[in-house]
Write a structure and sequence with these properties.
This protein has 20 helices and 15 strands. The protein is of the alpha+beta class and 627 residues long. It has 3 domains: 36 residues; 349 residues, no CATH class; 72 residues, no CATH class. The strands form 5 sheets. The protein has a 5-stranded antiparallel sheet with strand order 8-9-15-11-12, with no helix packed on it. It has a 4-stranded antiparallel sheet with strand order 7-10-14-13, with no helix packed on it. Strand 2 and strand 3 form a beta hairpin. Helix 5 crosses helix 6 and helix 10 packs antiparallel against helix 14.
Length: 627
């Protein structure tokens, strides 16, 4: 290189570096001046500290589970994992949707079950496809905690600017004893309560001028809860949102909350139609009706919220039924006092609407203490008649009354904190102490939950067949028969825990049953039937020497969505069947949810309508600016 050219390039590089340093210096001075003037620096530091506290609290609570990824969870974790593993098997091994679950109970709708394939339309699907089921489950639990913390922190910001108050409400709701007990025992539907604050945040922001479209985002979040099989969070979220909207409309004498509620509900139904209609179709044939006469009182609730001895095997107070994991809801004395203060002293249209909603949740959680009690009446409605353990209403009550406290305390703290940001630092230190107490108590169930170990060797069967019971056991057995291990072994299990105990739709016959005639057989007439191709959603049966009108049975539970060579299959003793003409035949039995042909267009139409409205609003805004 020429020396003159080299010197020129060197000067050019120095000038470029000087300009970069000068620009960076000016930007830093402007940023520092803005932060000093507006207090942005304090807010950034405090929000970062609150974020760190919430993440540390979640990790501390879940550490007993996260410290060892080699084990499986006890109690209901096996069946919850089996509900998710059908998605992994169907997509990765068979390249099909998780429409039918043949491994459990003789076969039943996987996507159409109220807890089935909850990871299919889910932000956690990539994790399940890319990692081991044990890793994916742990990351989903952690993700559920962080989602709830972030949503509650964001929602509480609608009622107070205090970072400490927001963090307090977030930790009290997202990580309290009820959440830990339910998550540790494998009630994964409880994780979906973490989306409730996001729904309320979308709804609340939609009440501002020009932001009504935000309510459609609330519908989208509610649809996520539906796809994730939030069997309790979905109807309870709908109830809370409806009560809050109606009460707020009365408070402010405006129809805007009603309009936002209508948009949220309509878009939620439209977005979630594929799952919603599939579940409705299944439950119409096999309704999940559960009696619920459980009752607790205020004194029992106080013990559930304050007793520090809570763990999975605890029983510090009388409970009407089931284990302590259905009742304990430790929040500690500080949070309990905050909830009471919010209920007693918060004022204003939104706090008043929230207070009445919170009182409704409180009395619903007390159960059927009278024939005219709120829960006794609500339990008669179609959706709620499939639910029990009404104390589950007390979990969202913590969020609702916590927002009331944030509104009341923020009323006199926000101005003082704006003038003296260090006050929020002191409050955040106090919140850290409260968080340590909640985490210390709530973390115990996770130390008791993940101890199950699978056998060292599992050899999957070459051909799928049903068996009466499990073919494998964990090294140390739990109370329920292991269904996930049977899936690992490619063996169905007729007597399973997945469906309701009184499920009467079993038509499949186990291979170890004296009545067994094969994976496919001729039930009426003559001939021979053999399954030559198989996947969860289909079976190709080769029939030889069939007599006229012979009845060919595929050894799988019947469902109206099963088809045989494109025609609707026959329900023969609750098994899938079809009739053939004389001779040799190839029969294609295939399952595809019959509701999808209606629900998918509805879902796409909803998405298109939302995009069209958003485009029209942006276009109108551009025209207004240009004029």
């Amino acid at each position: 290189m020429d020396p003159a050219e080299s010197a020129s390039r060197s000067r050019w590089g120095r000038r470029l570096a000087e300009r970069f340093r000068s620009s960076a210096s000016r930007a830093w001075r402007r940023f520092r001046g803005a932060t000093q003037k507006t207090g942005l620096g304090w807010r950034l530091a405090l929000n970062s500290a609150a974020l760190a506290l919430m993440v540390a609290s979640a990790l501390g609570l879940l550490w007993p589970m996260l410290s060892d990824f080699s084990t499986y969870g006890f109690h209901d974790w096996d069946v919850s994992a089996a509900f998710r593993y059908i998605t992994v098997l169907s997509l990765k091994q068979y390249h099909e949707g998780p429409w039918w679950h043949p491994w459990l109970c003789g076969g039943y709708p996987g996507f159409g079950h109220h807890e089935g394939a909850s990871n299919f339309i889910s932000p956690y699907l990539p994790i399940y496809l890319l990692t081991d089921i044990r890793t994916a489950i742990r990351l989903e639990v952690l993700g559920g905690a962080l989602t709830s913390l972030a949503g509650t922190y964001l929602l509480a910001g609608r009622f107070t600017r205090s970072v400490a108050l927001r963090a307090l409400i977030a930790i009290a709701y997202a990580l309290n004893g009820r959440w830990a007990l339910q998550a540790a025992t494998g009630h994964t539907w409880h994780l979906q309560y973490g989306w409730l604050p996001w729904v309320l945040w979308c709804f609340d922001t939609s009440l501002e001028p020009g932001r009504l479209g935000r309510s459609a985002w609330g519908g989208a979040v509610l649809a996520i809860i539906v796809y994730s099989c939030g069997i309790y969070p979905v109807p309870q979220t709908a109830l809370i949102l409806t009560a809050y909207a109606l009460l707020l409309a009365l408070q402010i004498r405006s129809l805007r909350p009603i309009a936002a509620l209508a948009i949220t509900g309509a878009t939620a139904v439209g977005f979630s139609a594929p799952k919603l209609l599939a579940v409705a179709d299944s439950m119409q044939r096999t309704p999940r009706l559960i009696g619920s006469t459980e009752t607790i009182g205020f004194s029992e609730l106080l013990v559930m919220m304050l007793d520090t001895s809570q763990s999975y095997m605890s029983a510090p107070v009388r409970t009407p039924a089931y284990g302590w994991h259905e009742w304990g809801i430790y929040v500690g004395p500080v949070v309990a006092m905050c909830l009471a203060l919010g209920l007693l002293f918060s004022r204003g249209p939104k706090p008043n609407a929230l207070k009445v909603t919170g009182v409704l949740l409180l009395f619903l959680g007390f159960g059927a203490f009278n024939q005219h009690a709120p829960w006794a009446l609500l339990h008669k409605l179609p959706i709620f008649s499939s639910q029990h353990v009404p104390s589950r209403f007390h979990y969202p009550m913590v969020l609702v009354l916590g927002l009331c406290f944030a509104a009341w305390a923020g009323g006199f703290l926000d101005r003082r904190i704006a003038a003296r940001p260090w006050l929020d630092v002191l409050l955040l230190i106090g919140v850290a102490w409260v968080a340590a107490d909640i985490v210390g108590v709530s973390g115990r169930p996770f130390g008791q939950a993940f101890w199950m170990e699978k056998p060292d060797v599992i050899r999957p069967a070459k051909l799928f067949e049903h068996r009466k019971g499990p073919v494998l056991q964990y090294k140390r057995r739990d109370w329920a028969p292991p269904m996930l291990l049977s899936m690992f072994a490619n063996t169905g299990m007729i007597k399973c825990y997945a469906l309701a105990p009184d499920f009467a739709g079993v038509g499949a016959i186990a291979a170890d049953d004296p009545r067994y005639q094969g994976r496919a057989y001729v039930a009426e007439g003559e001939g021979k039937a053999e399954v030559v191709e198989w996947s969860p959603n289909h079976a190709r049966v080769q029939v030889k020497g069939a007599s006229r009108n012979a009845l060919i049975v595929y050894n799988m539970n019947y469902d109206p969505s099963w088809r045989a060579n494109g025609e609707r299959a026959i329900n023969w003793n609750k098994a899938v069947a079809t009739r053939v003409a004389a001779g040799d035949h190839s029969i294609e039995f295939r399952y595809f949810p019959r509701t999808l042909k209606y629900s998918l267009p509805l879902s796409f139409a909803t998405i298109l309508a939302c995009l069209s409205v958003a485009w029209w609003r942006r276009r109108r805004a551009r025209r207004a600016r240009s004029s």
